[in-house]
Amino acid sequence: MRRLLATLAVLALSGAPGIADAQSGGNPAVPKRAAARAAPPLVEFEMMTWPEVKAAIDAGKTTALVYTGGTEQRGPQNVNGGHNLMGRATVKAIALKLGNAIALPVLPYTPNNASAELPGTIGLTPEILAAVLERVAEQSIATGFKNVILMGDHGGGQPNVYRDVARKLDDQYAPQGSHVYYCDEVYTKANGDFDAWLEAAGYPRSSHAGIPDTSEMLYLGGDAGWVRKDLVKTAMGDPLPPRGQRAQRDPSVPRINNGIGGDGRRASAELGKRLFDMKVDYAVRQITALLQASRTP
């Protein structure tokens, strides 16, 4: 009798909705042991093993995305590594959307100059960046990639360094079946179009550490400490002149000089998503066109 009761108890528990249906979300159409949602493809070089990289290249992921970030002060409200943090999220999203690419580790330094007054910046010279980009691109080709895309999250070195390195290496390696391209729309066009949209929508003018930067960091890492949220409401720097006009500072008005250009107080995660999506979409469109052109006889 005791064995019979024990068996009945086990059967009852196995059929209880709190246990059996928990795995299926209570949906009887889903198998009791629901299959876990498929993990996204591995597209970050630094998070892959060498056999995984080799298998990915053999399967057609023959495009290497070389993305540069930058370490610089971003006003009192944003962490200094913002370009690197945004860059990693951006290039990963680009790789996933392309479907034929792998994102290399984001380069954390780009052309800039350090300052003891605003101590958040560590920069390279354009010449050093050119040498690094050239070396990384050539190493990517040696690894087995057929296409290398240069792009960046920070304006330092763009477009000259990226464009010149891409042209030089493409001329050298194209006869061997490999190509190096510069994707500028992820930075120049996306940011320019977003700034124009902000202005048309009535937002105040801002530049460095203003609405675009702060909004994207709020969207991607607002809950991870990328932005000191309590300081966004005071994110006001030296004012910017109207678009198309040169700045003429009144010497009688003390400078704020806190690293913020203009008024960034209306930054939001919603605006950040708009900018992030634009950057990814613009990059995917341009890279796809570049790769198609390379296959055209």
Low-confidence stretches: 1-26
Record field, number of beta strands? 4
| Overall pLDDT | 90
At the fourth level of CATH, the homologous superfamily is Creatininase
Number of domains: 1
Main β-sheet, in a few words? 4 strands, parallel
- Largest sheet: spatial strand order: 2-1-3-4
Order of helices and strands: HHEHEHEHEHHH
Helix content: 40-55%
Percentage of residues in DSSP E strands = 5-15%
State the CATH class.
Answer: Alpha Beta
Would you give an account of this structure?
- This protein is an alpha/beta fold.
- The protein has a single domain, classed as 3-Layer(aba) Sandwich (Rossmann fold), CATH 3.40.50.
- The chain is 42% helix and 6% strand.
- The protein has helices spanning 2-14, 50-58, 82-98, 126-143, 160-173, 185-200, 211-221, 269-295, and strands spanning 63-68, 101-103, 147-152, 179-182.
- α5 (160-173) links the parallel β3 and β4.
- The longest helix is centred in the C-terminal third of the chain and has 27 residues, at 269-295.
Question: How do the strands and helices of this protein lay out in sequence?
Answer:
Layout lengths: L1 H13 L35 H9 L4 E6 L13 H17 L2 E3 L22 H18 L3 E6 L7 H14 L5 E4 L2 H16 L10 H11 L47 H27 L2
Parallel strand pairs: 1-2, 1-3, 3-4
Helix pairs in contact: 3-7, 3-8, 4-5, 6-8, 7-8
